[in-house]
Structures are given as C-alpha cells and as structure tokens.
C-alpha cells in the first residue's frame, strides 16, 4: 500500500494518538517497513522521505478541507439567496394583492358614492329645469311660453346642475393649488369625516368639509387639502380668535402636519 494513501487516511488518527508529542520518525519508518508501506518508487521510506511526505499530505488535506468549506459556504449562501428571493416574491405578491384589494375597495366606494349622490344630482336637475321654466327658457305649466333658443337645447338635453365657485383669496400655485378654485355642484352633500375618498379608497380623518372652503371632493390626499385650506384660512383670519371652532381645529391640524404651512 502507498504510504501517501495511508497518511491521507490516518493522519488525524495518528495526530490524536500522539496527543501533540513529536512523532518518532525512526520508529514509524521501521513500522512502515514491517507493514509494507512504500513511497512512490515502491521503496521503504527513509526518515527524510517520510517527513517530506507527511508535510505534503498535511498541505494537501488542508487545501481539500478549505475547498470543502468554501463549497459548503457557497451552497449555504446560494440557499440563503434562494430563500431571500422567495421571501421577496411572496412580499411582492402580497403587496400586489393589497393594491388590488385597495383598487377594488376604491371602485366599490365610487359606485356607492355615485349611488348616494344620484338623488342630489336628480334633485339639482329638477331645480334647474324649474328655474328654466320660470324664466321661460323651456315650456312649462302656468308660465309664459317662449321658444327655446339654441343655447337652451344642451341644458334641456343634459340637465346638468349649475356649477359655482367660492369667493376665496387668490394665490398662485403651488402656494395654493388650482384644486381650491375649481367650480363645484353646490347641491352635493359635504364630505364628512369617515367618508371614503373615491380616488384612493382611504377614509377622510380630519373633520368634515369647511363651509366656504374647498371640498375634499377635489383632492386625493388629506394633507393636500389641509395645506390649501390652512393657507386660505390664514389669509382670511390673521388670528385664530376670529375663526369658528371647526376652522380652528382644521388650522391647528394643518400647522401640526405641515411645517412649512406659511
């Protein structure tokens, strides 16, 4: 049997047997000859040959152990990376499901709000028709008949409510956004705390719409509404003492949530 092969198989056992003591190479070489262990040329090893072979086997085993350790670490890293990718995929899937649920809730909220606003829109259309009849723009019972002109035809066909704008101090964007100055249907009910924003599906938290100020219906996020209304409030009220209780509440909330309000 090759001495090198024997050393590779028994090096650790031999080191444990000698317990850190120096090896007796003379005795070991004699034992190698007795059991028939030979060097690469098939000869009984000398002390010098055995020591050199022992050193080379040690280096070989150290290198093999390092390679095995590196392969194990690489396999562990690959497993960790696979687990991380799987967790990321699951997280992305959960986020997508969350967004889809939010979109579905927003769509359901829009349908619900449209259904709730329909009576108000129908009532506004009826009031508009009554005003048109009273002004003789369209024929009606008990009124002076007058042939409607071309301008009256779209109104009679669509019966859209009259839109109005608020009398507010004017500021250029971005100090106050254009949403604050949009025309709106005055027949629609004010947005209340707890109502759901149709655009985002999120509930409004900071009180109800303030009379005489932009409605939350023009906004997607409450912070944008607070910024515009807070700046308009300050323009109309240099001090909180002249505000109503609801206006003071909105002003305090805007100042606490928007550091650069003024």
Automatic annotation (TrEMBL):
Where is the stretch described as Disordered? 135-157
- Which domain of life does the UniProt lineage start with? Bacteria
**What is the protein name stated in its UniProt record?**
Uncharacterized protein
Give the organism's phylogenetic lineage: Bacteria, Pseudomonadati, Pseudomonadota, Alphaproteobacteria, Acetobacterales
């Amino acid at each position: 049997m090759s001495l090198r092969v024997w050393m590779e198989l028994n090096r650790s056992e031999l080191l444990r047997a000698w317990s850190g003591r120096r090896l007796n190479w003379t005795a070991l070489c004699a034992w190698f000859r007795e059991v028939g262990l030979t060097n690469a040329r098939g000869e009984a090893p000398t002390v010098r040959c055995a020591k050199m072979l022992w050193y080379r086997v040690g280096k070989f085993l150290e290198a093999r152990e390092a390679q095995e350790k590196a392969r194990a670490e690489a396999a562990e890293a690959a497993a960790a990376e696979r687990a991380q990718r799987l967790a990321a995929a699951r997280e992305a899937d959960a986020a997508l499901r969350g967004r889809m649920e939010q979109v579905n809730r927003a769509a359901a909220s829009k349908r619900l709000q449209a259904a709730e606003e329909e009576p108000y829109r129908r009532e506004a259309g009826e009031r508009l028709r009554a005003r048109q009849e009273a002004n003789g723009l369209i024929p009606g019972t008990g009124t002076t008949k007058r042939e409607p002109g071309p301008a009256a035809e779209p109104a009679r066909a669509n019966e859209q409510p009259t839109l109005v704008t608020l009398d507010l101090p004017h500021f250029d964007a971005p100090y106050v956004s254009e949403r604050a100055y949009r025309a709106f249907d005055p027949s629609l009910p004010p947005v209340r705390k707890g109502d759901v924003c149709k655009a985002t599906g999120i509930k409004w938290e900071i009180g109800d719409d303030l009379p005489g100020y932009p409605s939350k219906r023009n906004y997607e996020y409450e912070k944008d509404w607070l910024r515009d209304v807070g700046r308009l409030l300050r323009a109309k009220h240099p001090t909180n003492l002249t505000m109503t209780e609801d206006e003071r509440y909105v002003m305090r909330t805007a100042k606490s949530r928007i550091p650069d309000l003024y």
